[in-house]
Every structure is written in structure tokens, then in C-alpha cells.
Amino acid sequence: MGAELDVAVVGGGIAGLAAAHELARAGREVRVFEAADHVGGRMATRHVSGFVVDTGAEQISTRGYPDTWDLLRRTGLDAAPRKVGRHVGVWRDGRVRRGLAHPLGLLTGAGLSVRARLDFLRATRGRFDVTRPETSRLGRATVAEFAAPHHRDLLEYLCQPVVSGFFGWRPEHSAAAPFLGLLGAIGPVTGWRAYDGGMDSLARALAARLDVTTSFPVREVVAARDHARVVGDDGEVRARSVVLAVPAPVARRVHVTAPEPDRRFLDACTFTPMVKAHLMLDRRPDPGVYLLAVPRSESPSVSVVLFDHLKHPDRAPAGRGLVTVIASPAIVPALLNAPDDQVVGVLADEAERFVPGLRAAVTGSVVHRFRHGLPEATPAALDLRAGFESRLGGVVDYAGDWLTLAPYSEAAVRSGRRAAARVLARTPSAAAQPGTLPSAAAPKREHA
Q1: Which of 149, 39, 136 is nearest to 448 (CA)?
Q2: CATH number of the domain that 141 lies in?
């Protein structure tokens, strides 16, 4: 029996959509299967009562995102991302210290002592490759080990707040090389942008040009020599090639025929969970920064307070505010299965310290949980990454930011495009003859 599809892409996040876009441009028959009822994955946006709630990624940059900007130009969205135009700050000793991820921070300190600033400049001298972090001179050092020889502020008021707040990482468990590579790639906050209409704008634009089946959770992918079966609750399809554009733990679970060497990397490539409470307010607080990183030494339960209405003016109606509170990694396990009102209570009560009057201003909320938030980039995964990458290109391939252990959307886009290139190289003739799915097995097809 021949394959019914040329290429099946499992996962409708930005990595899967980027892969499908490249394949469709090359004339391939490609269908995307997404478990949720919407596309976007960790770049999804919800529209609630006039608020634009970015549940995942918060911004892109004019630097370090070449593949993303290429897709934006192709889809006519390159003018859509608007400059954030606000500073990022750190909470220390009862107040906001501006200048994190900004040249201003070298003068103001952004919460760092002079000694810590000098230590950081010395420690980060040289190039850290964000696409091949295992080549770094830091080797397997964790973030905590990288910072240990230097002034204590470097860990407590820079490295830990950034890796925990932005990635959900624990500095004692996560490797320093991907973190420093990412810092060097994306550049200062002066180049950061947010999409008009929500951070899922690019995902929605790509999906509109593709064949996307939503609400189709994939249970198994079973590879054979020249095809693979994609099995879901509502049926199964056969494809000449499959791209698994899902988090590594999900890929490990569904790809039941993955070779043993691949399974070792997939097992090592753990993800950190994240919990966010998006609070809709009857006023617009302005602390002078759009994002406040909170060190664990300053709070046991809050890592970030993000003022979405300062990030982009369309995120809240006129006169209203939208504040996102991100839970500290230390408290996330207790909140993952907690009721929404409990999550809001815990996070809003603690965030009151940083935004006085916040609790009384809340008129509504959205709680979002990512059980597979971002790749954790452990030293064990770093050891196995290059070998895994060298074996890519089979009937079942992979896409996602975890392939380079770089937790940002550009890595996901880039991985999707590279996965598409490998599929095209493996089957250059594009000779697939689409078959007809048996009616009992055919999944419901929707265009997102």
C-alpha cells in the first residue's frame, strides 16, 4: 500500500508551520496535524474581552532572528512587529533597577555592583555559538558553575533571574553555553519587537496558506523503510516522510520506533514547565519598565512581572491594563494542577509587592500552563546533541528549538526550515502519489 501523503508534519507550532511552509513552496503535498484546536503552540495568543493575551513567546528581536524575518517578509508581515520601546528591570532591595539587557545597564548597574559588571564582561568575552552550544569553551558547566568564580551578584541578580524568568530554568541544572549563546544572538532590548495583534500573527499567517488539521492528537508514529504511519484517536494516515515538530518528551513518547541512540538524546532533552497568570486590570500601572525580573532571593514564588500594555498598546483596551505574572520554577510543580483561582491568588498576592494595588485592580484573569515549557539544556543533553543532529534525515525527522537547546522562537523556525530541507534532499523526486484515505480512518480536516 502506498503512502497517502507526501509529508505529514506533527505539531502546529511555529517550528512545524515553518517546515510545512518550506515544503509547500517546493511543491510538496504536506498536511499539518495539531493536537490543540488552534495553531501557534508556544507562540499562541488568546483574545479575551478586548485583551490580547500572549500565552507563550513575548517578543522577537531585529537581531538574531534572520529566518523569522525572512518568513515575515514572505507573508507580508515584516512591518507588523512594533518596537517595544521600554526597558527591562530587576527588582532589588525594594525597588526596580532599570537597564537589564540594555547598554544603559553598564552605567546604572541594573541591579549589579561594579565588580559584578566587570566580571560579566570578562566572563562572556569571546563567541558562544547558539546553533552549536557544545563547542563552547564552557563545556558542560551549568549556569551556576559558570557564575561561581565571580561576584555573587552575577548569579543572583543577572543569570538566575534571566534563566528562571525567561526559560523556567534552574541554574544548578541547566547548561551555561546555550544561555550565553542566546544572549549574544538576540542582542539588547533596544531591538526587541512585538507583533501587532498578538505573538501568534506569523503562525496564523502561515497556517492560512497550509492544509492544517486541528484537534488531532497524535498517539503514535511508526516508521517503516519508506513510509511512516501517523496514528491518532480519529484515524491514521501513511506518509512518505514525517516531521515531528513537538517538544522532545512528546517526540520520545509518540515515536515508538525511534532508534536507541535517538532515544538517549530525547530522554536527556528535558523540558521545564511554566505557569502564567494574565491579570486584566481596571487601570494601567507604569513602573518605568515593561518587564520586571524578580530574583529568587527576592521572592519565593514570582519570577517575572510583565506589563503587556506597555509592551504593545493593543494588548489592553484604552484605560485598562494587562499584567502577566510568571511563577518561579520553585513553585511551578505545586501550581500545575492547582485550580485557576488558586494560581491567581498565589501569584497576584505576591506580585502586589512589586505592583502596589494590583490585587484590587484585577477584573479578570487567564491562567496558562505549559507542561513542556522550554528545553532545559542540561549538560547531559549538551553531550548528546551533536550526535543526534548528525543522524537527522530519516523517514521520521524532527523540528523544534530543542534541537539546538536554544529556548527561543528563532531556533524553532530555523529548525523547521532545516527539517524541510532534509526531507527535500531525502526524496528529491517529489514523486509521491497522494492516495485516498479510507473514510473510516480519515481525520477531520480544518483550515486554521
Answers
A1: 39
A2: 1.10.3110
pLDDT digits (tens, 9 = 90+) for 74-121: 999 998 899 998 999 999 999 999 988 777 776 777 889 899 899 988
Rg of the chain over all Cα atoms, to the nearest angstrom: 22
Q: Angle CA(136)–CA(137)–CA(138) in degrees, nearest 5?
A: 85
pLDDT tens digits, 47-66: 999 999 999 989 999 999 99
Say how many C-beta atoms besides its own lie within 10 A of residue 437's C-beta.
16
Minimum mean pLDDT range among 116-130, 356-370, 391-405, 414-428: 116-130
* 159 and 105 both lie in a single domain: yes
| CA nearest to 252, candidates 402, 380, 75 | 402
Range of the domain at 167: 101-186
Residue 150 lies in a domain: yes
Of 152, 186, 220, the one marking the end of a domain is 186
Collect contacts of 219-227 with beta carbons under 8 A, ≥24 apart: 219/254, 220/254, 220/256, 221/10, 221/254, 221/255, 221/256, 221/257, 221/396, 222/256, 222/257, 223/255, 223/257, 223/394, 223/395, 223/396, 224/395, 225/395, 226/3, 226/395, 227/2, 227/3, 227/395
Q: Is residue 324 in a domain?
A: no
The answer to whether the CB of 107 falls within 8 A of the CB of 356 is no
**62 in any annotated domain:** no
| Amino acid of residue 220 | E
What total of structural domains would you count in the chain?
2
Residue with cell 507580508: 76
Residue 164 CA to residue 278 CA, distance in Å, equals 18
Tell me if 135 is assigned to some domain.
Answer: yes
Supply the DSSP symbol for 397: E
256 shares a domain with 211? yes
